[in-house]
Each structure stands twice: as C-alpha cells, then as structure tokens.
Specification:
six-stranded antiparallel beta sheet, alpha+beta, five-stranded antiparallel beta sheet
C-alpha cells in the first residue's frame, strides 16, 4: 500500500497508480490490501480501471463492479468504511488473458486532509479465493506479492483528472456533461425517491438559484444572464420560458409582496420586478439597492423573514456603504482587533476586504430603510428561518488556510441581531473560541456552501421536517442538520440526506407540493432540476415541542433594546443589560453586552467596572475595551488585575486575555508601569493546560515583549503535534527579536522544518516560507553560521547556482509535437532538472518528489502532472498558460479611471497606493492609486508568463517533459537508453 497525503486548496495533484496482477496466466485472480481511514472521515472515493472485469469488496461487503479500462470508474464508498483498518478485496476476471487492475482510492477528512492509496507492488494476490479472504483478520501470508506492470502511461491514463476527479472536485464531472447526473446513482434515506425533472439545454445556461412563484411555477436564474420560468408537471418540466434577459447572475430570487425580488450579483444591484397589468410578464423593474465591491463573494440570496421583511445575505466582496444605512445599527462598532498586525496579510486571499466582511441586511418591501443585522462572515450563500422565527446561515471557509491557526471550517450559524462571527482577512481571523464572537451551531468541515432551507413546509417525516438542509456544491451533497435546543440557541448534528457524484447543487427549495427541489449548476457546469419525495406511509409522529421558550424570550427582549423602534430609556437599557451580563447563556450575555454598547459609554463604564460577579465583570470589561476611551484604559487594566486567575475557568481566562488584546488594539498601548506589571503576571501564569489559553498568552506576551516568552514557549513548540498549534507559536515568536539562545533558535527552525512535512492549504506553505524569511533576517552572522544546517528544509544535496538564461528561440507547438515520442527513452535526468530551473519553473512551483529542487509556492505543486496530462497537452499548458487557469491562481485586473489596465497580484498597500506585481517573476512593482481604480475583476491571463521555454534548446524541452514524467525518479524508464 502506498500512502500519499495532501491538503485541499494547495494545488496538489493525485499520485499515479500502477497496473497490478498475478505473475501467472490465470484468468481469475484475487487481490487485497489494507487501507486506513481517519476518525473524522468525510469522503471515500474509489477509482478503478481494469483489463477484464472486477468486483470489489470493502470489509467483506460488495461495494461495486466495473469493466472500465479507458476511463476509471468512480465509486462513493464512504458508507462501507470504518475508522481505522479496512480491507479492500478485488475479484478480477480476464477475458481470455491474465487480468490487470489499477486502483486510486481517495480519503478525505473533515479537516480537509486528503490522502491516497494506490495499487502498487505491496498488494497481495492469489489465484484462488478462501473463506473471508476479503475481510479484516484474514491471514494472507500464503498469498503472493502482486506483480507490478508499472505506472500509467500519460497518453492513456484512465485516471487522468480531466476524466476522473477527486472528491473535492466532484463538481467538475458535470463540466462538459451532456445531461444532468442520473438520480439512480444518488443516495437518499430509506423511503425517499429522487426524480430528474429536467436537464438544462445548452441555450439554457447553467443554473444558480430558484424560487416558486404564487402560481406554483419555478423561476430559475441562469448563471450568465436572465431568468427562466418552468412549469412542472407530474414527471417532468412541461414548459420553459425566458421571462427576463438583462439581469446578470441572480444568486437570490424571492417572490414576496406581489413582486419578484432579485439580487443580481454581476449587475451589483438588488431589484424588484412587477407584472403591473397581469399578463404574466414583468413590465416594471426598479433598482432598490446598488452595492460596490467585486462579485466573487458577492450578492447572494434574498429571503422573506417571519416579520415580513426581506433579508439579503452578502459575501465579503460586497462593500457596506454608509449612504443607505442610518446609524445606529444592530451590528456596529466592528473593527479588525488584531493585537499584532501581520505585514504579509495583504498578500493573502481576501486581502482587499475589510470588516464587516460578509453581512446580512434587512429591508422593507420598497427598499426604503436598511438595517445591518450581522457581520463578520466570509461567504454565506443563503439563510433560513425555523418555525420559532430564528435565523440560520451556512458560512464558507478558506480552504487555502488549512493547517493554519486562523483556519475556520464551514459552519452553520445561528444569527441574532448584532451577531458578530469574527471573519477578518488573513491572519487576523478571530479563532472560533473568541469570546466576542458567537459560536457555531455545528462545524461542517471542508465544503462549499450554497443553498439552505428548513423542511418546515415539507411532506417529510417529522425528523426531516424539522431539519435544516444545507447544500455542499464541491462534494455533491445535501446534509440534514438536526437541531437541538441549547439554552436560548441551538446545537446541531448532521447526517447525509442526499449525495451524488456529481451533484453540483446550487440551491434547494421546498415546493407547494411539500417535495424538495434541488438545482444543480454553477461555473458553467451541466445543470439539472431534481425532485425528492417521501413515498412510504407516514407514521403518526408527535411533533417536537420547543422547551427553551423562556430563555429565547429573554434574549429577544434584550435584542429589542438595541433594535429600531426601541422606546426604553437609556438608563433602563443599561440596568437591564448589566443584570444579564452574568447569565450562563452565551447568546443572552452577547445580547446584553450589545444592548449596553449601544448606549453612551459614559452611562455604563463605571458600573461595568464595578460589577462584582466574575462573568458580569469580565463581559463588562470586554464591552469597555470595545467602546472605551483613553481615560478608561488604566481603570480597565486594574479591573482585569483584580480577578483571581486561579479561580477562572479556561473560558473566563480567554475573555480576560481577549479584553486586553481588544483594549490595546482599540484604545492604545499601556503605560510602562502597567505594561511591566501585566508582563510579570502573565509570565508567571504561562503556560497552562488549555491549548487555547496558551495560544492567547503567547500572543499577549509577544506583544508586550516579555523576556520570558521564548523560554516558556519552547517546550510547547517542541511538543506541538497539530500543525495549527505549531504554526501559532512560530507565528507569534517571530515578533520576539531578542533574548534568544542559539539552542532556542535551533529548536525554532527544527519546528519550522517539521511543519513542512505537513501539506496544508496554499497559505500554510506560504506562511512557513514567509516566517522563515522573516526570522532568518533577524539572525546575526554568527547565528546563521551555527544554524546553517537547519535554516532551510533538509535536502540530500545542494544544486549549484545557474548562470542567467540566454534566449534560444521562440518555440512553436508544431516544432515540438513530432518530437514528443522521444521523451519516452534516452533522456537526461540532470538536464531535465536544470531545465526546470532555467525555465524558471522553480520560481513558482514545487516538484515535491525531488526534495533537492525546493521551489516556490505561488503555483501548484507539479508532482504527478504527467499523470494528469498527455505529453502534448502538458506542452500546450506550458506554452499557452492562459488557455486554462486554475481559479486559485488567477491574477486580478485593475481598470483605472483613465482607461489604463493593470494586471497582477496585489502585493501590499500603503497610504492609498496599491503595489501590483505583474507576474511572480516580475521584480518591479507597479504603483496604483486606489482612488484611480474604476473596477476590479478577474484577469483572463495566467500568472505564468508565456515564452518560458524560449531559453531552452530542443533537447532541454524534451528532458524537462521527461523529468515530469519520471516523477523525480532518476531510474525511471524514460532514462533508459
């Protein structure tokens, strides 16, 4: 068994399996191998290619059958797997000859760690079966080791990711498909049936959202432009009409108040459409809101609230403008609150975005008055209300941050007025446990949130009628979130309700008939409309009641104190709020603090500082840190010093530490005496047993410049096993520039090297690389000499520097195509490696099989690239890099008001000037005044420049292609004479 681990979002690629079989000529053979699955298994995808016919088993259960050779067939096998040891068994039958089998098995965890098992020479084989041969516990010592027939040839690789995608990219299977996925391959609970009502025709585009009109017809938004109306019959869509052809990408559709409301993302407008003469056509379109910002994480769904208001959910690319908001608002006072600013945050994803980030707005039928309900989100696509009138959303993660301490998974959130969820750009992301943000109802893990809906109006059994259904576009599934009351809020568990491959679900709605309707599409993929019905006889089930009504009413009464229309005097608001700051319910405490913060700080500052209870005192101090003035800093610090640290729970210690961080971030740095006193106290307390508290203590001590920070952190750094925990200490210790011994520096760089063994998201590797550069700059010459063996990740040999490359010729595809068969033999490994450097591939890409090579992280790891593309296609990608661009590596196009266009990556911004790098190889930065920018869009040009091969000779180009094909193995067949 070969095991290969990768992180989602880093641009890594799958390994290439080997053809395996028996050494003899039997037409029937049996193969087995052991596979380990993680405790937090999210998906297991098995890809099988066979010369003959294969039936396969997982832990003794038949899991599938295939006779595919040219294109590996994929099977969703998650339900057969168990945490820990699993056994694969393959019964393979040839067709008049000895059969061969090739297998690629992908396992992905909820943390986003992607691993692979490939068929190779470690598998076992027999010409005959035996009892329980395909189960755990069977002794296969008498079986032979398989014969390996080598890896796939690129030209006929049945596992080419262009045809056989991994779990996270299951949606790509719908790209270029002629029909929507057959629902017979979907998984649903017993009693449910899925029908395909319509596959989108080419002229109908890809579909992104839907809404039922008052007549029961379905309005569907096309991805590019316009709206369709579908009349649904008993078994299929009977009629399709174009009813609007100007609005661009309507991610949100809502029928309410006698009109259709559309949140048109690419039009950057929220509009109302009316049929004023009753002829079934919209003859009035009125723009109710225009928003600035870009369109990636943009203008999403529109939902009717139980109060009759319209709620809009926006991603963090949409700007909140003051021209349509009258302050105060339920959600206000939002700031970054980053204690130690990070100079490389502007280089990371979402760099241009600032608080409030993703947010939820509320308005009336006419769009006259707007309310900012909540913020601190990344990119929630939709929201939904339960029967109690409580609001929920499903927020996105940044998969590029996997492995980093600032990574947050996708999660279901309970949204109350004024809710803060802590999204900030880059390393400034608030951790999940931050006490000034509300917690998640349930974490989902790596996924791509799209439409959500409660089953309240369904004809489903009670369990499913009460569920919240959330859609995951990437993995192709709809999850049922089962909610249970938790104080005045909820806790949730999830179960898979609907899954397919591909099931690129963009929206989910319940129709007038009580059935679930599922829409697929997005990113130009094939779309379909499905209906899910429950067909068994319904049992008499008792409707689940709500028992937490009293606590919910307390919270709602507090929310009313800072909502529009509040008539309670400020003095009374403060009095009520203070009395609930000590409440055991986190949502009630949050609402109480928010109510108090909406009143003049002079009215409550002293009373907050005088609060005798621990919980109330801590939360009052946090409020004062958020809204206090300079004169409040000293008494605030004295208040915090008055708490007996030993008597505080870990959660209370987190509130105390967060209050210091917010106060220093918002109000200002402490005076010398206060700072030294605080330093001494915190050094004495550090470390503790709780890892979260240690993370925050490390941050505070690094900020204060405490002399014992390094001494007390080194044991934690050495003991850290989780990549995010290790990176947290590496990140904050980079700010401590003095007081190090050479031994401690060695421990630090050893931890950095250890961190590189884990492949996290794109920004995990970027962070390690940047931290290494920063800390190396801090070293003296003597330290660099003493630490030379650990300053870079260990390699077996060091490649010599190359002289500057010289232009050879401008190569054309047709000049090299006929030479491609020569790649297969007699090539030079060393020359191919040198060509990788001469063509500057190494500046942006790693080639992880060859650890000597090193390389950059601004492009994807090129391991396995020859397994993905035939030689001609690979050459085409290198020579024409803009032909197909991975979304994660796109450049940004800045169009200026004078018509000039600047393309590249935003490197940094200073005093209103942005500095843009045209491509990763460009040495100079282009200054761009932000005030002169008219629009910001994605560039159609690849960050990889054209003409990189023009410094290579013909033989160098062929050796470079062979280097990729050999996977860094100098003994590969391409080097045989």
């Amino acid at each position: 068994m070969s095991f290969h681990g990768y992180g989602i979002g880093q641009g890594t690629v799958q390994p290439v399996p080997e053809w395996v079989g028996n050494t003899g000529a039997e037409e029937q053979v049996y193969l087995r191998t052991v596979v380990n699955a993680p405790e937090d298994l999210l998906r297991g995808i098995l890809l099988v290619a066979v010369e003959g016919e294969a039936t396969f088993f997982v832990n003794g259960q038949k899991a599938g059958q295939t006779a595919q050779r040219e294109r590996a067939e994929s099977f969703e096998v998650t339900r057969f797997l168990r945490a820990g040891t699993n056994v694969w068994g393959f019964a393979v039958k040839g067709e008049g000859k000895a059969p061969k089998l090739a297998v690629l098995f992908e396992v992905i965890s909820h943390k986003g760690v992607q691993s692979w098992v490939i068929s190779d020479g470690s598998w076992r084989v027999s010409g005959s079966s035996a009892a329980k041969w395909n189960e755990v516990g069977f002794n296969d010592a008498a079986w032979s080791v398989v014969k390996s027939f080598g890896v796939m040839e690129a030209k006929d690789n049945p596992f080419d990711p262009a045809k056989a995608f991994d779990a996270y990219n299951s949606w790509k299977l719908a790209s270029g498909a002629k029909l929507a996925t057959d629902p017979a391959s979907f998984r649903v609970p017993e009693g449910f049936r899925v029908e395909l009502l319509r596959s989108a025709l080419p002229e109908e585009d890809s579909w992104v959202s839907m809404a039922f009109d008052p007549q029961g017809r379905l309005t569907v938004a096309r991805e590019k432009r316009g709206l369709l109306r579908m009349t649904i019959g008993a078994t299929a869509v009977e009629q399709v009409e174009v009813i609007e052809d100007s609005l661009l990408e309507c991610r949100g559709l809502l029928y309410a108040h006698g009109a259709l409301y559309a949140n048109a993302n690419n039009s950057k407008a929220f509009v109302r459409l009316r049929d004023t003469d009753g002829d079934g056509k919209f003859d009035e379109t009125k723009e109710l809101l225009r928003t600035e910002g870009t369109v990636g994480h943009g203008r999403n769904h529109a939902v009717l609230g139980p109060d009759g208001a319209i709620y809009l959910v926006h991603g963090n690319d949409v700007r909140v403008a003051t021209n349509y908001l009258k302050w105060p608002q339920p959600y206000q006072g939002y700031k970054v609150d980053q204690l130690i600013e990070c100079p490389w945050d502007p280089y990371m994803f979402d760099a241009q975005n600032t608080p409030p980030g993703g947010h939820i707005l509320k308005t009336d039928a006419e769009g006259r008055e707007w309310t900012l309900i909540a913020g601190g989100l990344r990119n929630p696509l939709d929201l939904a209300f339960n029967e109690a009138g409580e609001m929920f959303t499903f927020d996105a993660d940044n998969e590029g941050d996997l492995g980093c301490p600032w990574y947050r998974p996708t999660r279901v959130l309970h949204v109350i007025p004024g809710a803060e969820f802590g999204w900030r750009r880059g390393t400034g992301m608030w951790p999940e446990y931050s006490p000034d943000a509300l917690p998640a109802v349930v974490n989902i893990g790596v996924s791509s949130p799209t439409g959500i809906e409660f089953g309240t109006k369904s004809q489903f059994p009670e369990k499913y009628r009460q569920a919240l259904y959330i859609s995951d576009w990437s993995y192709g599934r709809v999850l049922a979130v089962l909610l249970a009351e938790k104080g005045s809020s909820y806790a949730g568990t999830t179960e898979e309700f609907l899954a397919g491959r591909p099931l690129n679900v963009t929206d989910v709605k319940f129709g007038p008939d009580g059935a679930m309707y599922v829409l697929t599409g997005g990113r130009k993929t094939q779309s379909g409309l499905y209906r899910v019905k429950y067909e068994l006889k319904m049992k008499n089930e008792e409707k689940r009641g709500e028992s937490a009504g009293q606590l919910r009413e307390v919270r709602r009464e507090l929310e009313a104190l800072y909502s529009k229309g509040n008539a309670v005097a400020a003095e009374e608001v403060v009095k009520r709020a203070l009395s609930y700051l000590r409440h055991e319910d986190v949502f009630i405490r949050f609402a109480a603090r928010t109510a108090m913060e909406h009143q003049p700080v002079g009215l409550w500052a002293q009373r907050a500082l005088s609060e005798p209870s621990i919980e109330g005192g801590l939360n009052g101090a946090l409020a004062l840190a958020r809204f206090g003035e300079k004169t409040h800093l000293v008494p605030l610090m004295r208040k915090l010093e008055s708490f007996d640290w030993a008597k505080l729970s870990a959660e209370q210690q987190l509130v105390l530490l967060r209050t210091y961080a917010v106060a220093f971030s918002r109000i200002g740095v402490p005076d010398a005496n206060s700072g030294w006193r605080l330093m001494a106290m915190m050094e004495e307390r550090y470390p503790v047993k709780d890892w979260r508290v240690n993370n925050k203590l490390c941050e505070l001590l690094a900020y204060l410049g405490a002399p014992e920070t390094v001494n007390r952190t080194m044991p934690l750094l050495s003991a850290a096993t989780e990549p995010n925990d290790r990176l947290n200490y590496l990140f904050f210790l980079r700010n401590v520039t003095s007081g190090w011994t050479v031994s401690q520096r060695r421990t630090y760089f050893e931890a950095l090297n250890k961190g590189e063994e884990f492949s996290g998201g794109r920004y995990y590797g970027f962070s390690l690389q940047t931290i290494r550069a920063e800390v190396t700059e801090q070293l003296t010459l003597a330290e660099r000499t003493a630490l030379a063996d650990v300053l870079v990740a260990p390699v077996k040999e060091k490649l010599p520097e190359l002289p500057p490359a010289q232009f050879v010729k401008e190569w054309r595809m047709e000049e090299l195509l006929n030479a491609l068969p020569e790649v297969g033999k007699g090539r030079s490994f060393e020359n191919g490696r040198e060509a990788f450097r001469q063509a500057q591939c190494v500046a942006c890409h790693r080639f992880s099989p060859d650890r000597v090579m090193g390389g950059g992280v601004t492009g994807p790891d090129l391991a396995g690239v020859s397994g993905r593309f035939p030689r001609a296609d690979l050459l085409d990608h290198v020579m024409n890099p803009s032909k197909v661009i991975d979304e994660k590596f796109r450049l940004t196009r800045f169009k200026l008001r004078d018509g000039e266009v600047v393309e590249g990556t935003l490197e940094r911004e200073e005093a209103g000037t942005m500095y843009v790098r045209a491509n990763p190889l460009a040495k100079e930065l282009k200054p761009v005044k932000r005030a002169q920018v008219a629009s910001v869009t994605e560039s159609p040009m690849s960050p990889m420049p054209e003409g990189l091969l023009n410094v290579l000779k013909r033989e160098d180009v062929l050796d470079l292609l062979a280097y990729f094909e050999a996977e860094g193995n100098p003994k590969h067949g391409v080097y045989k004479k």
